[in-house]
Amino acid sequence: MAGAGDFDELSEVAGRVRRAMEQVIEGKPDVVEVAITVLLAEGHLLIEDVPGVGKTMLAKALAKSIDCTVRRIQFTPDLLPSDITGVSVFNQEIRDFEFKPGAVFANIVVGDEINRASPKTQAALLESMEERQVTVDTTTYHLESPFMVIATQNPIEMEGTYPLPEAQRDRFMARVSMGYPEPAAELRMLDGHAADDPLANLQPVTDGQQILRLVKTVQSVHVSESVKEYAVALVGATRRSQELRLGASPRSTLHLIRAARAAAALDAREFVLPDDIQELAVPVLAHRVLPAAEAHLGGRGAADIISGLVASVPLPRTRRD
Questions:
Q1: Which positions fall inside the ATPase AAA-3 domain (predicted)?
Q2: What predicted TM-score, i.e. pTM, was given to this entire model?
Q3: CA-CA distance, 59 to 255, in Å (whole number)?
Q4: What is the rounded CA–CA span in Å between residue 8 and residue 282?
Q5: CATH number of residue 190's parent domain
Q6: How far is CA 185 from the centre of its chain?
Q7: Measured between alpha carbons, how far is residue 50 from residues 64, 137, 212, 280 in Å?
Q8: 252 and 121, same domain (yes or no)
Q9: Which of 220, 250, 266 is at the close of a domain?
Q10: What CATH number does residue 262 fall under?
Q11: Both 198 and 246 in a single domain?
């Protein structure tokens, strides 16, 4: 069981990572907070937005600030699954096949423009994201911890993209959109980024071993039965909503609880509140559901529908569990 000192360490380290990332990412504290939350919850992050708003910069800033091994994969239509997972090649010296690890063998894997690759190549990430291992030629290779995939994608309406299949979207714990910066933040970006690359000057503020200790602290956060029931009720509401033709999966309930634990720990709390569930509902659930045609025609997207469900599902009564 984690003690007060463990939560103090988590808060202090997370603060350092947050400040380091905000040196690079101007005016997006909410997006930075979600990225750190997903890291500590051992999830994967999907960043979706139009080109040029800093998606890749956010992924690289998080990776560099925690001083872990980083591999970047530029997804293109001709990218092969073996480029991601690795391949066995015959070594003439030892007269046997030798495994050459692919780009997925790193602590932080940055998948840039993931929806520009074919569905077959996209699927190469599924096993590593869910089971943290890769199987090539019947041999299984385990990935080192911490392990996190940060993928960026352009909206599916953009030319030359392939929509991510539901099975792969469901592997991502959360999805965020960068959005355009406020004018003041864009002005600061011109001053700070025009003459120099702030990412090049970013120094690591922690390391992989410390991140693993913080993950253990997050796992010790208490979740009461009433909060669990509330999370189940909220996810269940997505399956009954007339505005959705596909509701959220049971995996999304697990991800919601894990992310809520991380959010509580970042707030220096040893227990999860219903507020944690509510605040994370949109980033954790919206990319897993599909709006019905009527909702789409009415201009209501997945995030709007999830927000409506959060407002309609009754909060749990406070009780001791």
A1: 44-173
A2: 0.89
A3: 20
A4: 28
A5: 3.40.50.300
A6: 24
A7: 23, 38, 33, 23
A8: no
A9: 220
A10: 1.10.8.80
A11: no
263-to-38, 114, 220, 259 alpha-carbon distances in Å? 9, 27, 13, 6
Whole-number Å distance between alpha carbons of 106 and 144: 7
233 lies in the same domain as 204: no
Give the per-residue pLDDT at 226.
Answer: 96
Residue type, 213: R
Domain count, the chain: 2
**Per-block average pLDDT, block size 10, for the chain (321 residues)?**
78 93 86 95 90 79 88 89 88 82 91 86 84 86 91 73 81 88 76 70 90 95 96 96 93 97 94 96 95 88 94 79 52
CA–CA gap between residue 204 and residue 240 (Å, rounded)? 46
Q: Are residues 166 and 213 in the same domain?
A: yes
Query: What pLDDT score was predicted for residue 305?
Result: 95
- CB neighbours of 318 closer than 8 A, spacing ≥ 6? 226
The torsion of the CA quartet 224, 226, 228, 229, rounded to 10 degrees, works out to 160
Say if residue 309 is in the same domain as residue 189: no
In angstroms, rounded to a whole number, what is the distance separating the alpha carbons of residues 52 and 160? 17
Query: What is the rounded CA–CA span in Å between residue 170 and residue 222?
Result: 25
Residues 120 and 61 in one domain: yes
Q: How far apart are CA 175 and CA 31, in angstroms?
A: 10
